[in-house]
Amino acid sequence: MNKKEIQEQRVKGYFITATKDLLKSDGLKSVSVRNIADRAGYSFATLYNYFKDVKDLVFLCVKDFREECREYVESRTMAITPGNKRLKAIILAYMEYFIQYPGIFDLFFAEKLSDISGKGDTSALITSLLDELCAADWDYCIDMRMLTSREAGLKKAALLYGSTGLLTLYLNRRHPGSYDAFLKQATHFIDSQLKS
Fold first, then answer.
1. Residue (of 103, 83, 93, 20) closest to 54 by Cα position
2. Among 29, 92, 95, 129, which is 20 to 30 Å from 70 by CA?
3. How far apart are CA 101 and CA 111, in angstroms?
4. Residue 57: which region, alpha, beta or left (left: phi > 0; alpha: psi -120 to 50)?
């Protein structure tokens, strides 16, 4: 890479980091060209030298947050034996990530996708994450004849919808009223779904 390319990557990185910081702290409502530029330390016109619009930046942030979540979950579950035990740990770590970053949860599951990006694959990026995190363990359970492919498909869907619903209630309505009560409900829900 030459000096110009290095400088370009550095400036793009400043804008992406600024956007991620805004999304984590205040959600999509705080993301504007001016806010991003101010936080990045550049003029708002400079942003357009590197990105088509704010939606492009937000799309890149979705991809980065997705990778952060993957790394977070993998760091907490890689030593666990494959199968139901690790599936449970993966789903709990996935939920824990969003509890730590409610702005990211809102971005992923509460905002209109048309407000996030003009790219068609944003929805698939978001909704496929939990399934991808669990893929090897679902395959293990099927290979070990713990369940059929059809049963795994039904459980995958129930766990995605259920975990999203539990997180929505907890993060937006504070129901249940404490993290311990939430964890107990989440654990009970996951256990009931993973039962053979």
1. 20
2. 29
3. 15
4. alpha
Task: For the chain, count helices (H), then strands (E).
Answer: 11, 0
Please name which of 156, 158, 162 lies closest in space to residue 130, comparing C-alpha atoms. Answer: 156
Cβ–Cβ under 8 Å, residues 15 and 51 = yes
Q: Report pLDDT digits (tens) over 159-188.
A: 999 999 999 999 998 899 999 999 999 999
Whole-angstrom Cα distance, residue 37 to residue 25? 16
- The one-letter amino acid code at 27 reads G
Dihedral pair phi/psi, residue 82, rounded to 5°: -60, 155
Residues with Cβ within 8 Å of 3's Cβ and at least 6 positions away in sequence, in order, are none
